[in-house]
Amino acid sequence: MDILKDHKKQQEVQAEKLGPVWVDADLVFTNPMGDRLSYRTAYDCFKRVVDSIGVPSARFHDLRHTYAVNAIRAGDDLKTIQGNLGHATA
């Protein structure tokens, strides 16, 4: 949480510097202008991380599966998980 709080403070500083140019998209991870990261940026970062931890075959989509399994193990109800994943049915 401390890392995320520090990141939020850095975003606030960046937003103040840019003033009206800053895009307030209410996102945790943004480009330097405050807008969404491009797919390429997110994918390249993900691949660097999984390569560094020795799992180069991991796919970005695998994060959804990991979330679903961990949510079930944590006791979340299926309807909540369904909604979080954006699925029409469980």
Give a brief outline of the structure.
With about 90 residues, the protein is mostly helical. It has helices at about 1-20, 40-50, 60-75, 80-85.
Characterize the structure shown.
The chain is mostly helical and 90 residues long. It has 2 domains: 36 residues, no CATH class; 53 residues, no CATH class. The chain has 4 helices and no strands.
Q: How far apart lie the N and C ends?
A: 31 Å
Name the quaternary structure: single chain
Number of discrete helical segments:
4
| Share of helix, binned | 55-70%
Q: Any idea what the shape is? A: extended
Structural class category: mainly alpha
Instruction: Give the low-pLDDT segments.
Output: none
Task: Count the domains.
Answer: 2
Q: Indicate the mean pLDDT.
A: 95
H/E element string?
Answer: HHHH
Largest beta-sheet characterization: none
Question: Proportion of β residues?
Answer: under 5%
Count of distinct strands: 0
